[in-house]
Amino acid sequence: MTDAPGTLALARTAAGAVRSLNHATLGGEGLAQPADAYELIGELALAAAGLPQLLAQVGRWLAAALAAGRLGCDDGADPAAAVGGARLSLSGARATAAALAAALGQAQQQIAAVHGPPAPEEGERP
Predict the structure, then answer these.
(1) In angstroms, rounded to a whole number, what is the distance separating the alpha carbons of residues 19 and 15?
(2) Alpha carbon distance 33, 1 (integer Å)
(3) What's CA 47's distance to the chain center, in Å?
């Protein structure tokens, strides 16, 4: 038995999290210290690093569903061309996601030693 609704809910949650992060960081809000940016970039790198596996699994599912004769096209055409095109695009997306993860990791390392002003002592004005 499959859990497509659960899988789709997770995808919607991921997309919603990115939208929420966009809003949270709009205008410089949502980040108080360079360490916050460091951690945020690291979490995004981790998320991007998982995308190649996910996209490969989706491509394999499409291929298996096609081979099992479970796919069709709305216009009556053979779905093989559409699935082939989608798998080719997914392959490119996998490479792009891997490059994104690597670039985010590099960005995180670039700011590893960057710090902000010290926190004010208790009783001092910020």
Answers:
(1) 6
(2) 46
(3) 5
What would the mean pLDDT of 42-49 be, rounded to a whole number? 98
The span from the CA of 43 to the CA of 63, in Å, is 31
The amino acid at residue 27 is: G
- What DSSP designation does 35 have? H
- Amino acid 1: pLDDT: 52
The tokens for 12 are: 């919607």
pTM: 0.88
Residue 30 DSSP symbol: T
Give, as one character, the DSSP assignment of residue 124.
S
Q: Residue 126 has what pLDDT?
A: 59
* Nearest of 88, 95, 92, 94 to residue 63 by alpha carbon: 88
| pLDDT at site 118 | 84
